């Protein structure tokens, strides 16, 4: 299938929930001006952010297929690595120790010659950009770190008992935060400039200063968060797992398309996210078994 993708979440459900929330807020605004003022300052959630910035037509399956295949390959690597952590630590949660361990599992970035070859790949792709592609990539870059995954989780919670939905919401939030922390730890260690830093013509909108070295792009934070979210969301709603994988491929491809990353940044980020997903899955499975 080569047709452009559109997101597969439940807009009718979201619309009903949002309408109810607005109605509730209006009812209480007249009764409590202070509460109304506090609500006005509240940071918009994923539902509100995406409702105010709906997705454009995204990339075709054919465009993202190559990176999707690489993501799948990283999952096998991550599972094998995580088995070692599990053998040593069991199901005990120790986020600090796991974060340090996971960072150590990320291989060193490619050598200069290989990374230069990857940069050329990004430069070649940049020449084929279209207005529609830029629009899709910009939307995915904006919402791909968290909003998309939180909105998917929101959809799932609509059909769950309140307590279970709250637990899953908190777990996803923690997993995304941990994935971010690990990628930042590795990025600070390896200091690999993003493609558009090496070639500013790839993203003239970034307005870099002379001699700027960062931001560092190895490994990709977007890829790490996407991979972690895919594992958790897929466990919670297996019948939608393929949709989550397809969206992760979209997010990851957008980072290549707009020169935020080279391929090795993305595979390394996916590895981090897969490890984080396995870590939370392992803890959750043991917790469920004990009940």
TrEMBL record:
<feature type="region of interest" description="Disordered">
    <location>
        <begin position="195"/>
        <end position="217"/>
    </location>
</feature>
<protein>
    <submittedName>
        <fullName>PA-phosphatase-like phosphoesterase</fullName>
    </submittedName>
</protein>
<feature type="domain" description="Phosphatidic acid phosphatase type 2/haloperoxidase">
    <location>
        <begin position="191"/>
        <end position="276"/>
    </location>
</feature>
<dbReference type="InterPro" id="IPR000326">
    <property type="entry name" value="PAP2/HPO"/>
</dbReference>
<dbReference type="Pfam" id="PF01569">
    <property type="entry name" value="PAP2"/>
</dbReference>
<dbReference type="InterPro" id="IPR036938">
    <property type="entry name" value="PAP2/HPO_sf"/>
</dbReference>
